[in-house]
Amino acid sequence: MTPRPALSHLLRDERGVTIVEFALIAPALMVLVLGIFDLGYNAYTNQMLQGAIQRAARASTMEGAAGNAAALDGRVASEVHTVAANASLSFDRKSYNSFSQVGRPEDFTDLDNDGLCDNGEPFEDANGNGVWDRDPGTAGFGGARDAVLYTVTVKYPRLLPIASFLPGMSADVTLASSTVLRNQPYGFQKSGGAPIVGNCP
C-alpha cells in the first residue's frame, strides 16, 4: 500500500529540523558557554589576588610593617573587591627563621620507624615552644631577616549560575594564594642559631 500524497509530502518535509536540533543541543551549549565564562572570571580574580598579595607582601617586609597590618590587608581586599565585590577575605601570616622551614615539620629522629614523633624521640625545636610542631611557623610578621609566609583566602559567590546546572558544584568559589618573602635586614635576627633539642611525648 503506497502512502497518500499528503503523508508522503509530510515525511519528506524538513522545515523546522534546525530549530529542533538546536533545542536539543542548546542546554549543553549554554552550560559549556557559562562554564567557559566562569572559568575565565575565576582565573582573572586569581590573578588579581596574586598581584595584590605580592605587593602587600613586599610592603610587609619593611621595618614597622607589623603596625600597618590592617592597612596592608585592606589594600589587598580593595583590589580583590574591584573584581569580586561580594568576596570575603581571610589573612594569615607565619614567620620562620629561614626559607627551608616553610611548610616543613620540625626534624625528629624516628627511632621506632612509625613516622610519628612520639615515645620520647628527640626533635629539633626550631621555634622554641617546647613541643614538636608539624608547622614550626610563628603567627605574625616575625622580625628582621625572618621568612614570612603570607596567605590570603578569598570566598565569593559565582558570577554566573552555573552551579544550578551541575550537581555537586558549589555556588561559591574559594581561592587561596600564598607568597613567601624575607624581611629586610633592618636589625639582627632574634631567633636562629643552633636549635634546641627536645623529646616527643
Could you characterize what this model shows?
The chain is an alpha+beta fold. The protein has one domain (about 15-200). It has 3 helices and 6 strands. The protein has helices at about 5-10, 15-60, 70-80, and strands spanning about 90-95, 120-125, 140, 145-155, 170-180, 195-200. The strands form 2 sheets. A 4-stranded antiparallel β-sheet has the order 3-1-4-5, with helices on one face. Helix 2 runs antiparallel to helix 3 (about 70-80). The radius of gyration is 29 Å and the shape is elongated. It starts with a helix and ends with a strand. The mean pLDDT is about 80.
Category by helix and strand content: alpha+beta
- Please state the CA-atom Rg, rounded to the nearest Å: 29 Å
Please give the number of β-strands: 6
Mean pLDDT: 82
Give the low-confidence spans: none
Name the descriptors.
201 residues; alpha+beta; four-stranded antiparallel beta sheet
Brief description of this entry?
The protein is α+β, with helices and mostly antiparallel strands. The chain is built from 3 helices and 6 strands.
